[in-house]
Every structure is written in structure tokens, then in C-alpha cells.
Amino acid sequence: MRRIDSTHSTWLFDTERMRFCRLPRGVDPQSITLDSEWQPYFGLEIETAGAFTVALNADHTRLLRAWREEPEPTKELELQTDASSD
Question: Is 0.85 topped by the overall pTM?
């Protein structure tokens, strides 16, 4: 079982059975009891930039794309310049 937290959802991937379930954030994954809550998937691509894509059919023409939750929000950094190099 693989879990991915996105901005708005928790995604569970049953890699052995090639099925997934998407839950709203805050819902306990243990609450999934019905097989009808799972949907088949045909591929999962996870990008280093934080996005992931789920293929909903064998031809990969129906896709869901989401972004993983960032461990830290984007923030501005202030770089100090070296005054001695002038």
C-alpha cells in the first residue's frame, strides 16, 4: 500500500491489485471498508517537482494530476551579499 498526501486529498494506492482510493484530507484511511470505494488505475507517475499523475485507462488517455503536499510552504529567502568583494 502506498500513501500520497496531496494539497486537498489523501491518495491510497493498492499496488498489488492496481486500485486506488482518494479521500478528503482529514478522513481516516482505516474507514475504507467497501471495495466499491476503490477504483482501478493503470499507471502512476511521480515527478520530482512534486506532481503525480494517475492513469485511469490502459491507453493513458484519461489522467488525474495532483500535487503532493509540500513539507514546508514556499517562502522567500534573503541572500546576504559579501561586502568585501566590492
Answer: no
